[in-house]
Each structure stands twice: as C-alpha cells, then as structure tokens.
Amino acid sequence: MAPQKKQKLHKSESNEPSSFIQEKAARRNWRDFQGTEQSRRISFPGFYELKSLITFLILNIGTLVLIDVYPQPSAELRNLLGMAPPLLWINIACSIYLFTELILVFCRERSKNSDRFAIKQLLFLCSMYVFYWYAGALQQHFALLLGIGVALQLSEAFSRKNPRQKITAE
C-alpha cells in the first residue's frame, strides 16, 4: 500500500492535470471566451421591441387632446364617484410603482420575447393618468407621467432585446 500512496502523491505534486476539470481548464484558450463576449454586447431594440413605446406615445398625444376638451371631471361624475384621492397618495403610488417596476424589469429572465409586461405597464400608466385627471392635476403632472412611461417602456424594450441567459450548471 505504501508504494501506491507514494505514486498518488507523486502524481498530485506533478504539473500534470489529474482531474477532468483541470484538463478542460488547461485546454481552454482565448477563442473559448470569444463567443461569450459577443453575446454580452448590448444591442438596441428594433421596431418589434419598441411597439409598446410607440403605443404609449400615441396614447399621450390622445391625452393631450382630451385634456383640452375635458380638463376636469364633471360635477355629475364627481357626485357619482365621490371625492378624489389626495394628490400626495397618488404621487406616492406612482413612485412606488416606478421603483418596483424597474426592479422587476431588470431582474426578469425571459425565455421568449413577450409583450405581456409592456401591455401591463401601459394599462397601469393609463390608470395613473385617470387618477391624476380625476384629482384635477393631470396638466401639472403630465410631463412626470410622460417621463415615467418612456423610461419604463424603454427599459422594457432593452430588456426584451437583450434577455438574461439562465445560468445552468455543466
């Protein structure tokens, strides 16, 4: 037994790789890493990824027209729905939504290119427009909502164009 232990000890002390992982690591060269660098490059979204942003901008143009026609809700609508929520609450809800949605966009892993999340963002932003309009403050907060919407839609488009790859163990 003693001679076999000396042989194993002699092999581990030598510079020869003894395990499969060490052999694989020794065989790698710069070409093995070339494909991963190219796949990590950020590519700009095309028309397919920017459809939701274009839709959002068209909705904003429609909102500008409707603000001129209906700057505030009518008295009958106010009597029917009741008092508007305080503006501070709407601002807090909007900022919480922006923060959480940005985290979700950047942490989401995608296996296929889907418009589902962009449509959800559009619907929620439309509800924020309605809340600000009902509170009578849409004209003052229009630029804020436009900026939030464009930032969310652009981040969603970049995220859809450059999906995160799932890490698998080899």
Count of beta strands: 0
The run of helices and strands is HHHHHHHH
Mean pLDDT: 76
Percent range for β-strand residues:
under 5%
- From the N-terminal CA to the C-terminal CA, the straight-line distance is 35 Å
The overall number of domains is 2
Helix content: over 70%
Give the topology.
Blueprint: H1 2-13, H2 20-27, H3 34-39, H4 47-69, H5 75-81, H6 87-107, H7 116-134, H8 138-161
Keywords: Membrane, Transmembrane, Transmembrane helix
Transmembrane segments: 48-67, 87-106, 141-158
Region (Disordered): 1-24
Q: What does this entry look like structurally?
A:
The chain crosses the membrane at residues 48-67, 87-106, 141-158. Keywords: Membrane, Transmembrane, Transmembrane helix. Residues 1-24 are annotated as: Disordered. By secondary structure, this protein is an all-alpha fold. The chain has 2 domains: 2-38, no CATH class; 45-161, no CATH class. The protein contains 8 helices and no strands. It has helices at 2-13, 20-27, 34-39, 47-69, 75-81, 87-107, 116-134, 138-161. α4 packs parallel to α7 (116-134), α6 (87-107) packs parallel to α8 (138-161) and α7 (116-134) packs antiparallel against α8 (138-161). The longest helix has 24 residues, at 138-161. The mean pLDDT is 76.
Question: What descriptive keywords fit this protein?
Answer:
0% strand; transmembrane; mainly alpha; single chain; 2 domains
Short description:
The protein is an all-alpha fold and 170 residues long. The protein has helices at residues 2-13, 20-27, 34-39, 47-69, 75-81, 87-107, 116-134, 138-161. Helix 4 (47-69) packs parallel to helix 7 and helix 6 (87-107) runs parallel beside helix 8.
